[in-house]
């Protein structure tokens, strides 16, 4: 199940005796553990009824012994095991498998992993059968926009539509970093009403995706000096040249696709369904693609691919190679 389904179940008082939590978004995972604690444990008794261990510090037998402990002045206790899949051949694993088949109803046992459970191995199969498996995937698109709005509203603020779309489109943060950026945005716009896109542009740390939009805008306007400055800023900030070229290749490919679909008369919804691009990216790409002919876009892509090959094979500096690409496109 996903996090939203888990939240609904928890709100309805539905709590499993065994969970397996995994996924990229660690902030949501940790907050879900916190939510279980708040739902289950009486105030002031958390330390008596909550334990957390790395699984490499415990044998399967010890995990079972801890899970069988009774809660103290509470209906349940919570045991969190940061799971490492290395217990298949350890002594006592059969006891853990047997426990999973009949878990202690007074214990909520939560295994936390990096990835989905493997399909092989007796312990993994037992977990798949016994546990509620919850994935905490990275938030994207409208889901991420909703999360951003909710976070700002909890702090008494609102944000304009184009601003939240921009934040979602350029996102390469995990949510922990995104929260810090939003906190910075809240701090620097205190008392200024609804948060605008310009404030986001001025305050939020630029990602490589955001800088690529700036670089593409400058290229589209044939502003070579501005494009070179954006490039130099990215290199100074430590962005690897190959990452810049790879992101720019993807961006130009998106411009070619969007321009082609617009020529066919497709609307935003059709393009989104076909390309899976964020609506903001489609809108921005349409504006940028209109500044180029299809031949110019294909030529720019060929020049960029040639620059990428040179970055990997020649002794010239990355800055020199990429600045030459900018000059070739602009003049």
Instruction: Report on the biggest sheet.
Output: 5 strands, parallel
Which segments are poorly predicted (pLDDT under 50) over 5 or more consecutive residues? Answer: none
What would CATH call the architecture of the largest domain?
3-Layer(aba) Sandwich
From the 3D structure, determine the CATH topology of the largest domain.
Rossmann fold
CATH class of the largest domain: Alpha Beta
* Strands in their spatial order, largest beta sheet: 2-3-4-1-5
Instruction: Tell me the count of domains.
Output: 3
Cα Rg = 25 Å
- The H-and-E topology, N to C, reads as HEHHEHEHEHEHHHHHHHHHHH
Number of helices: 17
Strand content: 5-15%
- Percent range for helical residues? 55-70%
- Average of the residue pLDDT scores: 87
Distance between the termini: 53 Å
Query: Pairing-aware structural class of the strands and helices?
Result: alpha/beta
Short key terms for the protein model shown above:
3 domains; Zinc Finger, Delta Prime, domain 3; Rossmann fold; Helicase, Ruva Protein, domain 3; 331 residues; 5-stranded parallel beta sheet; 8% strand; 5 strands; alpha/beta
Explain this structure:
By secondary structure, this protein is an alpha/beta fold. It has 3 domains: 133 residues, 3-Layer(aba) Sandwich (Rossmann fold); 63 residues, Orthogonal Bundle (Helicase, Ruva Protein, domain 3), CATH 1.10.8; 123 residues, Zinc Finger, Delta Prime, domain 3. 60% of the residues lie in helices and 8% in strands. The protein has a 5-stranded parallel β-sheet, with helices on both faces. Helix 5 packs parallel to helix 6, helix 7 crosses helix 8 and helix 11 packs antiparallel against helix 12. The radius of gyration is 25 Å and the shape is elongated.
